[in-house]
């Protein structure tokens, strides 16, 4: 689709685990068991962890009533946040993110700025390729099998398919599990309250690439959270993922993201069969009047419908070597897909020094409007103009975005209809989801200092 480039830049990875910096020593020790009670094959198969099994898709009709005691509706999120706070009390984080200053920047979009100087500390330089979205898993580099089990909150599994209700077990053996366990673990360099990592099938050592199975688990986790303020994000390689081991991120922030309030324009599409089913009822729109060009997916009768279309789109980007970020919003009902080119521009020397000096890596959270700033002077001088200029550098040019849009929709089994048809009414839509969220949460929407 575009001329191949071979680029490397010095990447400074965020430390996401307390074992990240001594990963090579731990790898050397692993053989007969590393003695650290880690997530590797040396320790995990004989371990016990808390286990949360997901119930049925909340969009599916309940065929038979649930049996036994049901968990409270907020059990998943309260358990996750409670376990996260427990790890904070135990001193497992590198800094206290709840003490970070946060403000809403005045302006049309209402970008959220946070001063997070802790993420600027205790990092080590490494060579990181930005010209390859798909790269092989390298066991010699840090990966999540080296994480200590004390950083894990619980296993997260999809259930047996027969139960309509979720279940939680305070301790469950790994031995006997039919699949490699998926785990939810803390990010020791958190961006926000409740910042965690979802690591699908950790023992399979999957590289950072989306597939339908892993994305569906992320969507179900968002649905189980049951709150518009609990969101999941994904960064591909080349779009500021710094660890090539499959993972999603999530955290809780009780204010709407700017991208969630942005207007969208519906893309008129006709669904064609790919011979594998799925994807029915999913609508796709483009962001309008927002600094980053992106696609918005919503609707579908089930999470599987949403998953089918979004996963096909992401796989298409991966296979065409186009870096991208994903935001899972509104309890899995909406998904934002952002193809981007900032790292490519950075490696080519096409980003202004004014933006580079801030050392802000525009990943999924920044593209969604949550600007994580590492220097006090940048935080104090943060403006909508600065945020807009940064995000404009991230966005694909209009012509290239239109090419990518056509490419991913075709991969998802959608044909763009002829917009010259006079019978098609204008499809510019205000974001009703964000407006509903604001109305329903009016006591929270004026809360500016969200970190305290």
UniProtKB/TrEMBL annotation:
Taxonomy, superkingdom: Eukaryota
Record-annotated GDPGP1-like C-terminal domain positions: 258-413
Compartments reported by the entry: Cytoplasm
EC number: 2.7.7.78
GO terms, molecular function: GDP-D-glucose phosphorylase activity; guanyl-nucleotide exchange factor activity; hydrolase activity; nucleotide binding
Presence of keyword Transferase: yes
Chief localisation class: cytoplasm
Pfam families found in the cross-reference section: GDPGP1_C, GDPGP1_N
Single biological process term from Gene Ontology: glucose metabolic process
InterPro entries registered for this protein in UniProt: GDPGP, GDPGP1_C, GDPGP1_N
PROSITE patterns in the cross-refs: PROKAR_LIPOPROTEIN (PS51257)
Keyword Nucleotidyltransferase: yes
Keyword terms: Cytoplasm, Guanine-nucleotide releasing factor, Hydrolase, Nucleotide-binding, Nucleotidyltransferase, Transferase
Positions of the GDPGP1-like N-terminal domain: 76-251
UniProt enzyme class: transferase
One cellular component term from this protein's GO annotations in UniProt: cytoplasm
Reactions the enzyme catalyzes: GDP-alpha-D-glucose + phosphate = alpha-D-glucose 1-phosphate + GDP + H(+)
Family statement: Belongs to the GDPGP1 family.
Chain's role: Specific and highly efficient GDP-D-glucose phosphorylase regulating the levels of GDP-D-glucose in cells.
PANTHER family for this protein: GDP-D-GLUCOSE PHOSPHORYLASE 1
Name of the protein described by the UniProt record: GDP-D-glucose phosphorylase 1
């Amino acid at each position: 689709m575009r001329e191949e480039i071979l680029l490397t830049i010095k990447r400074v990875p965020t430390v996401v685990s307390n074992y990240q910096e001594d990963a090579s020593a731990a790898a050397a020790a692993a053989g007969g068991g590393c003695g650290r009670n880690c997530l590797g094959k040396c320790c995990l198969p004989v371990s016990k962890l808390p286990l949360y099994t997901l119930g049925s898709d909340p969009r599916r009709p309940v065929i038979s009533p649930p049996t036994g005691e049901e968990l409270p509706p907020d059990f998943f999120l309260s358990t996750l946040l409670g376990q996260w706070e427990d790890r904070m009390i135990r001193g497992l984080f590198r800094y206290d993110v709840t003490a970070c200053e946060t403000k809403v920047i005045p302006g049309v979009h209402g970008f959220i700025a946070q001063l997070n100087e802790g993420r600027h500390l205790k990092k080590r330089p490494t060579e990181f390729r930005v010209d390859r979205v798909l790269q092989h898993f390298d066991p010699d580099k840090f990966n999540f099998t080296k994480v200590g089990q004390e950083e894990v909150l619980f296993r997260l599994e999809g259930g047996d398919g027969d139960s309509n209700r979720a279940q939680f077990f305070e301790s469950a053996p790994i031995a006997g599990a039919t699949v490699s366990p998926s785990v939810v673990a803390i990010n020791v360099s958190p961006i926000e309250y409740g910042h965690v990592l979802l690591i699908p099938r950790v023992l399979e050592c999957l590289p950072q690439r989306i597939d339908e199975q892993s994305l569906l688990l992320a969507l179900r986790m968002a649905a189980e959270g049951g709150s518009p303020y609990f969101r999941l994000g994904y960064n591909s390689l080349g779009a500021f993922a710094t660890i090539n081991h499959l993972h999603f991120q999530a955290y809780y922030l009780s204010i709407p993201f700017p991208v969630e309030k942005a207007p969208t324009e519906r893309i008129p599409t006709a669904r064609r069969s790919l011979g594998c089913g799925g994807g029915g009822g999913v609508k796709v729109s483009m962001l309008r009047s927002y600094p980053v060009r992106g696609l918005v997916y919503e609707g579908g009768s089930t999470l599987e419908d949403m998953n089918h279309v979004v996963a096909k789109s992401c796989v298409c980007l991966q296979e065409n070597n186009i870096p991208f970020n994903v935001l899972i919003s509104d309890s899995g009902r909406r998904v934002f897909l952002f193809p981007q080119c900032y790292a490519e521009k950075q490696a080519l020397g096409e980003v202004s020094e004014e933006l580079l000096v801030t050392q802000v890596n525009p990943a999924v959270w920044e593209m969604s409007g949550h600007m994580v700033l590492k220097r006090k002077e940048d935080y104090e001088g943060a403006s909508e103009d600065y945020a807009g200029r940064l995000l404009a550098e991230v966005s694909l040019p209009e012509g290239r975005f239109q090419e990518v849009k056509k490419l991913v929709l075709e991969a998802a089994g959608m044909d763009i209809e002829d917009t010259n048809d006079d019978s098609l009414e204008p499809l510019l839509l205000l974001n009703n989801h964000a407006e509903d969220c604001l109305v329903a949460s009016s006591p929270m929407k004026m809360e500016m200092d969200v970190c305290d």
